[in-house]
Amino acid sequence: MATTKFRAVIVGGGVSGLTLTSALEKSKVEYVLLEDREDFAPSVGASIALAANGARILDQLGCYQTIEGHAIPLTNIQTWMDGRMLRDSDELLFNHKRLGYPVFFVDRHLLLRKLYDNIEDKSRLLLDKRVSGIGHNQEAATVRIIVRQEMFRHTEVNQPGLRDVEENAMLSEYKCMARLLVRLRKDGQGTPSSNIPKFTDEDAVALAQRSSSVLLSGKVKFADLRENRLPYKLVLLEEGMFRHWIWGRLICIGDSIHKWTPNIGQGVNDAIESAACVANALGRLASLHETASKKEVERGLGSVLNDEKRGATSTF
């Protein structure tokens, strides 16, 4: 671990947080990660799609091979409507040959576990640390946590785990269960975060029963999928992208700043890319300054905004 006084405080140990941690460790940038949960790889969330833009970064970090061995590759894409196939494409095979990495699905729990295992110095990874406040000035950023009231000062990176004051800009237009997407509203306006409902098991059963006759392919109905299901949950799907990512020493990455519905399969890949961009920017800052001023940090993180916001905008 580096001896420099420059330190990043990472709030949230999701995919982007653990990716950033691994990248900073390899760049020898001092850091500490604060996670609210009691486990870095909880058994929550469904499978996620990993594409070339995320896989190449995990490969550089040294954990791609351990993940690929547990993955299910995706070779064909079929589009169906009312039991009739509209499209059957093997374009993903060509993308694999062209880009060097396949598109595959992997359990979110497993991805988090492999990212965590890839980090050598786990003493910097702190569980059960809920952030209660963040402040910053010309000299440092201050993060206040509830457990033991520990204080950390330096650059702060917010990724999923903290709610933004602009959270109402993140909208939900669909709800989802076992990859069945149902539109909530037909006016195209979506539902702001402050009004998003939470669904019960009874709500999930009711939706499944109403959707039982929906054809997923020529002969397979949603009822067939439900009868052979693994654990499932009915959730709202948030999507949106905030305008402001950086404020002084603070930067938001991953789902806390841009979030997509799962059908596009790019949410986790964009989160990994964001983490890599931040790690590169902080690596440059740490190599130039023992203690960077607020303007120097803001200028350095601005390079992340220019590169990553362009890519996120094209996805959105």
Automatic annotation (TrEMBL):
Keywords: FAD, Flavoprotein, Oxidoreductase. InterPro entries: FAD-bd (IPR002938), FAD/NAD-bd_sf (IPR036188), FAD_mOase_fung (IPR050562). It comes from the Eukaryota. One of its GO terms (molecular function) is FAD binding. Pfam families: FAD_binding_3. Residues 8-86, 238-284 form the FAD-binding domain. Belongs to the paxM FAD-dependent monooxygenase family. This is FAD-binding domain-containing protein. It comes from Cladophialophora bantiana (strain ATCC 10958 / CBS 173.52 / CDC B-1940 / NIH 8579) (Xylohypha bantiana). The lineage of its organism: Eukaryota, Fungi, Dikarya, Ascomycota, Pezizomycotina.
